[in-house]
Design a protein that fits this description.
12-stranded antiparallel β-sheet; 2 helices; globular
C-alpha cells in the first residue's frame, strides 16, 4: 500500500505534464513521394529527337520541390546528330531538375563515346548548368581514356573544355605497345 502512495503522485505528475497538441500539423509533402514508379523508362526529346533515356527499378518524384530519386538507374544521352554520346549506370541517382544537379552513388560507370573515356566511382555529382562532373576530395575515381588508365582522388571534369584533373594522389599506366607496333610498320 505504501508503494501505491509513492507511485501514484509520480504517475499523476508524469501524466499531467504530458500534453498532445492536435493543432500542430506535420508537413509530409517533403518526405513522402507524390509518385512512385517501378520498373520504369523515362525518355526526353529535344527538337523531336531522343536526347536522353533513363531506366530504373524505382523512381520517386516529390511534390513540393523538383527532387526525384532513382534506384538502379541506367541512362543514355544522344547528341544533336542522334549519335550515342554517353551511357552509364549507378545504384542510386538523385536528380534536382530545377538546379540541374545530378548526384550518383555506388557502382557508378560512365562511358563517354565522343571523348573515348570511361569513369568508375562511388560518388559523383554532375552540374548541368556549368557542365562539371566532380567527386569528393577523398573519393577514389578510376578513369580510362584511350591508352591511359588513371586512379586518383579529387577528380573533376569539364564538359565545356573537355578536360579533367585530379587534385589528390594519382597512379596510373599508359599502354604504348600498339603505337610502337604501328610505328614499326610505318618504318618498314
Amino acid at each position: 500500500m505504501r508503494k501505491f502512495f509513492l507511485l501514484f503522485p509520480l504517475t499523476l505528475i508524469l501524466f499531467l505534464s504530458c500534453s498532445l497538441n492536435y493543432g500542430e500539423q506535420v508537413d509530409t509533402q517533403n518526405s513522402v513521394p507524390e509518385f512512385i514508379f517501378k520498373n520504369t523508362s523515362y525518355k526526353k526529346y529535344k527538337d523531336s529527337k531522343l536526347s536522353m533515356e533513363m531506366n530504373a527499378s524505382i523512381i520517386e518524384q516529390y511534390k513540393t520541390n523538383s527532387l526525384s530519386y532513382a534506384d538502379n538507374a541506367k541512362f543514355k544521352t544522344w547528341n544533336e546528330d542522334g549519335e550515342l554520346e554517353t551511357e552509364g549506370s549507378c545504384a542510386l541517382l538523385s536528380m534536382d531538375q530545377t538546379e540541374k544537379l545530378y548526384t550518383m552513388f555506388k557502382s557508378i560507370v560512365i562511358k563517354n563515346y565522343s571523348q573515348s573515356m570511361e569513369i568508375q566511382a562511388e560518388n559523383l555529382k554532375w552540374n548541368g548548368q556549368n557542365e562539371q562532373l566532380v567527386s569528393g576530395v577523398s573519393d577514389l575515381v578510376f578513369l580510362k581514356k584511350d591508352k591511359l588508365e588513371l586512379e586518383g582522388t579529387g577528380f573533376s571534369a569539364s564538359g565545356v573544355s573537355k578536360s579533367f584533373e585530379f587534385t589528390g594522389k594519382v597512379t596510373g599506366s599508359m599502354d604504348t605497345s600498339k603505337s610502337d607496333e604501328r610505328e614499326a610498320k610505318d618504318e618498314s
